[in-house]
Amino acid sequence: MRIFHRAAPLCRRAIAAACALGLVACSGMATQPAAVLPATPLATTLAQIRSELSVMPASVRGNNAARSTVIRALDDVLGQQSAEQPTAPEVVDFYRDALARVAVQIPAPVTEGARVWMLYNKGFLVKTASTTFAFDVVSGKAFTGSGAPAWDIAFPAEILDRIDVLFVTHLHPDHYDAVLAAALAARGKTVVCPRAAGTAAGCTVWMDAGESATIAGLLVHAWDAPHPVPTLMYEVVTAEKLRVLNTGDACCSASIPRTAAVDLLLLNAWMNEDNAGTNRDGMTAALLRVQPRLMIPGHLQELSHPLPVVETGAGRYGYENALKVQADNSLPGKTVVLAWGEHLDLLP
C-alpha cells in the first residue's frame, strides 16, 4: 500500500510530516511533484511513528513541537482510511500493538496522582492508587453497516482484569462494545450505563442525568449530554479526591457543567457548538468554561466516521485542531494530545 498518493492539501501535509521524520527524501520538496517521491510502505511509516513517539512520551510540561509533527504524520495516515472499506491491516496491527503495550504497563502500581491511557476513539483508562476505571472502551472500529468489517481484535484479558468500573456514555458502537461490556460483567466488574440503555449487554448499574451515586468507592454524578441518542457525561471523584469529567458526545460547551475544580477533562474533540462553530471553537470554549488542570481530547480519527476530515458538521475529526489547542498557551490548564495506547501521568 502506498501512503502519499494524492495531490491534495492532506497529501502535501503528510509529505511535509514525513520529511520531518526522515521518512522521505526532502531535497527540493517545494518544487518536486508528489508523483516522483519515493514510496513508503505503510507498515514502515507506522513503525517509524511508533518509534518516534516512544522516545518523546506525552508530558504536561508543555507542547513538544517535534512530537506534534509525529502526531500529524499519524493523522495523515489515518485520514486516508475510508470508513466504507476494510481498514488497512497495518493500521489494525498498529492499534493491536498499542493495546499490547497498555496490557504490559497497566499492572504497574500508581502511588500518587493518576495514570491515564488513551485507547481507541473516546476510550480512556484512569488508574490511581485505589482503583482503575474506564470510559467508553471498545475493541476498535466496529461494523456500522457501511460494508467495512469490524476489526478482528481480541481485547487483552490483562486490561479487562484490571478495570474495576467501566462507564458507558451511550450505545453508539464507537463508545459501547457489547462483547467487551459482557466480558467485564462476567468478571464481576461494574458497568455503568445510561438508564435508557435498558437491557443492553453487560450493563450492571444504570444512571439518569442528575443522579448521584457511590459506585465501587467512586463518587459519581451523571449529567445530560445533548446528542441524538440518550447520552451521559460522568463526573467521577476518586478516594484520592481526583475529579474527572468525561463529556461523552456532548454537542456544545454550554452543556458542560460548571462543577467543582476538575483535575482531568476528557473532552470529545468534535465538539463544534452544534455546528455553529469549528471544533477548535468548541474545545476552546470548553476549556474556558471548565478550567481543568488537564484536558485530553478524544474522538480523534474514529475510522467508522466517513471522510472527509472536517472542522464542523458531519464527517471525521482529525488531530490538527486538537494540536492547535494544545499549542495555545493562553488557555487554562494543559492540553495534551495522545495517540492510541499512549499514557500520561497526572501528579497531585
Overall geometry comes to globular
Distance between the termini: 45 Å
- Main pleated-sheet profile: 7 strands, mixed
How many domains? The number is 2
Strand/helix succession: HHHHEEEHEHEEEEEEEHEHEE
CATH architecture of the largest domain: 4-Layer Sandwich
Q: What's the total helix number? A: 8
Widest beta sheet: strand line-up: 6-5-4-3-2-1-14
- Unreliable sequence segments: 1-39
Please name the fourth-level CATH homologous superfamily of the largest domain: Ribonuclease Z/Hydroxyacylglutathione hydrolase-like
Percentage of β-strand residues: 15-25%
Q: Taking Cα atoms only, what radius of gyration do you get, to the nearest Å? A: 19 Å
Rounded mean pLDDT score:
89
Number of strands: 14
Helix content, binned percent: 25-40%
Helix/strand class: alpha/beta
CATH class of the largest domain: Alpha Beta
Examine the coordinates and then state which fold CATH places here, giving the name of the CATH topology of the largest domain.
Answer: Metallo-beta-lactamase, Chain A
Explain this structure.
The protein has helices spanning 9-21, 42-54, 65-78, 89-105, 157-160, 178-186, 279-290, 320-327; strands spanning 114-118, 124-127, 132-135, 165-167, 190-194, 205-207, 212-215, 218-224, 232-237, 243-246, 264-268, 294-298, 334-335, 343-346. It has 348 residues and is α/β, with parallel strands linked by helices. The strands form 2 sheets. The chain has a 7-stranded mixed sheet, covered by helices on one side. The protein has a 7-stranded mixed sheet with strand order 7-8-9-10-11-12-13. Helix 7 (279-290) packs parallel to helix 8. The protein starts with 8 loop residues before the first helix and ends with a strand.
